[in-house]
Amino acid sequence: MVVEKKTTTDFEREVRQTVGEITAEDVFPVQLRVLQIVAMWPAFNGSPQKQMLTKVILNFNSFVLAFCTVGLLLKGIITRDLVDRSEAMDIFTLTGSALYKMVFFYIYHNEMADMMNCGAALIHQVPPKWMQYVTFFTVLHCFMGFICITFWALCPILKLIFGETELNEMTLPINLYDPMEAKGAMFALFYFICHYGLISSAHIYMAADCYLFTAIHLANGGFQTLNGKLEDMKQAIAHKGDTSHDSANEYIKDCIKLHVHILTFIRKTDALFRSLFVADVVHAIISLSFAMLQASESKGIFENLKMTVFVSYCFVHQYLNSYFGQHLIDQQDTLFEKLLLSVPWNDCSRNLRKSYHIMTTGCLKSVRLSAWSVYTLQFATFLEFVKTMISYFMVLRQVQDETEVQIEI
After folding, report:
1. Structural domain harbouring 204
2. 275-334: pLDDT as tens digits
3. Where are the transmembrane segments (predicted)?
4. Is 6 among the domain residues?
5. Closest residue by Cα to residue 18 from 144, 150, 120, 132
6. Position 182 in a domain
């Protein structure tokens, strides 16, 4: 089998043309449109009116999320009941982290665009049909998040409709601090604000997820191509022997350039998303711990179903982070194994050995997406996260049980 030889000039020309002619807007239009819905991304090629509308939506979303976050924080501080506090804290971290993500994306959208433009240069370096289901899963992920949080927001109305509660006992969808005990039109206004805050928070989370998962999937496609190239080179050397070493050297140089480009893309992604990973982890641990306590104390079919759906999707969200991060690590480990097996490093030309050494150096330590030293996107860390979250829940459960015993006495 003959290795298809591509010159350095051809490779560099292809990358330059890809970067110059194909941008993130061309490759990831759905992901960016999803971001634009909640003003996390400015309208590309938009008129001044569209730019103004984006800023209006950004300011309105910021106000609503800040209002909900402060109201939930005050409720969590003021109330003395642990279950009542849990009903505030599980959503407090959601709205607070969503507000941070939205503002972060808008402020650093130039850096985000540069990251994705770097990724766009890899679009012709991934296997055929590698990206064909990305749009489908983007829409599915956002839709499922929307359904989950909409059910939460409508739960008080459903309880009223099916007779689980009376009109004068109806509560807001989130446990805001409400010293005035709003009624009538004021209650309806607060309900709308809470409902919108929940919907926008979930959409912000789903939009950021889709942006990140698409980037990781693209990088994994680049590694998949590299693995295929090394396998082809192994077969070519096995068939042609020493006469193929010169062409193999040029081939591995081409692989080095692609590898460097992928690593640059991953490092840009890691640098931009580190603080967002921290927000994810803090939200997940605090929110899930309190949400599980709230679920254990919930009464009625709608409350039980609401908490079950919410806790389940929070687990899914954190699992998906770890899944894509683990897949990225596995692809790099596979590349290192392929490199060891594909190149006859102990019996090859000096130039090929030098190129082999350069690429091996870049593969010795896999690049991992992480929140500094707090959290790494991989299955091992996900299991530690689950253990930590369950431990916090057990502590809260024990405190609540002791409180109930003291009240009975």
Report:
1. 18-408
2. 999 999 999 999 999 999 999 988 889 999 999 999 999 999 999 999 999 999 999 999
3. 56-79, 91-109, 130-162, 182-199, 271-293
4. no
5. 120
6. yes
- Token pair, residue 322, equals 């770890």
Residue 109 in contact with residue 6, Cβ under 8 Å? no
Structure tokens at 6: 């591509």
Report how far apart, in Å, the C-alpha atoms of 344 and of each of 6, 7, 247, 350 are. 21, 22, 14, 12
Say if 9 falls within a structural domain: no
**Distance (Å, rounded) from C-alpha 361 to C-alpha 263?**
13
Max mean pLDDT range (8-17, 189-198, 344-353): 189-198
Q: Is 237 inside a domain boundary?
A: yes
Global pTM reads 0.89
* DSSP per-residue string spanning 219-279: HHHHHHHHHHHHHHHHHHHHHHGGGGHHHHHHHHHHHHHHHHHHHHHHHHHHHHHHHHHHH
Per-residue pLDDT tens over the stretch 366-399: 999 999 888 999 999 999 999 999 999 999 999 9
Per the structure block, which two tokens stand in for 304?
Answer: 């039980």
As beta bridge partners, residue 242 has none
